[in-house]
Amino acid sequence: MAAAKAEPQAYVVVPNPDNIKSIKLQVPTVIPSPPVTETEKLVSGELYNCMDQALVNGRAFAKVCMQTLNTSDPLDINTRNKATLDLLGTKGENVWIEPPFFCDYGSNIHLGTATYLNFNCTFLDGAPIRIGARCFLAPNVSIYTATHPIEPRARSISEYSKPVTIGDDCWIGGCSIILPGVTIGDCSVVGAGSVVTKDVPPYTVVAGNPAKKIKDVPRLTSDAAIVPSK
C-alpha cells in the first residue's frame, strides 16, 4: 500500500523583504457572511486552516517583534516601545509589557491605558483579546482564545477561536489561565493559579480550578474612601 502523500509545508513569504511590516496580519474590520478568507474565519469564530499563508506570515511577523522586545536592552525604552506598538493591534498610553512576552499574532491584542503585563505572559490571540484600562496581569498569566474540535481527525486540520474580554481596573493573579470566550467584568480580581472557564461579573473576586466566586470587591464612592483591604 502506498504511503500517504505528505501535505506541502507552508513557508513564510515576505512580499517586500525591505518592509517586514508587510506581512503583519491585517485584521478585517468588515467580515462577509459567510466569511471567505481564513483570516475572516479566524476572527469570526469559524473553523479555519492555521497554515494559510497570510496566517503563517502573520505569526512570523509577531515572532520578529517579540524577538526585539524580549531581547532588548532594558534601558532602551524607545526600542521596546516601538516593538510593542508594531506588535499589538492597539494600545493606550503608558502600557508596559515586561519581557518575555509571547503571542500568536499580536494584531488581535488591544490593551487599555496604563495596563501592565508582568513577566512571561502568553496570549493566543486568534480571536480578539481586549483588556481595559489600569489592569494588572501578574507573571505567567495565559490568555487563550484558540481551541479545537474534540474529534481527532477534525482537530488535526482545523481550529477556531473565541474572544476574551477583560474590563477596566482588573487584577489577574500569577499563573492564572483565562480560557476561550471568557469575559471578566470591571474591577474584578482573579486569584493566583486560577483557571477561568466562565464569565466573571464586575466587582467579583474569583479563585480556584475552575475559578469560583470568593467574595465581592468593595465599591468606592470617592478616592477619599480608599483604605487597604485584603
- CATH level-two architecture: 3 Solenoid
**Low-confidence spans:** none
- CATH class group: Mainly Beta
* Helix count from the secondary structure assignment: 4
Largest sheet: 7 strands, mixed
Structurally, the number of domains stands at: 1
Structural category is alpha/beta
Shape descriptor: globular
Helix content: 10-25%
The fourth-level CATH homologous superfamily is: Hexapeptide repeat proteins
Task: Find the CATH topology.
Answer: UDP N-Acetylglucosamine Acyltransferase, domain 1
The tally of beta strands, per DSSP, is 19
- Quote the beta fraction: 15-25%
Features:
19 strands, acyltransferase, UDP N-Acetylglucosamine Acyltransferase, domain 1, O-acyltransferase activity, Mac_dom, alpha/beta
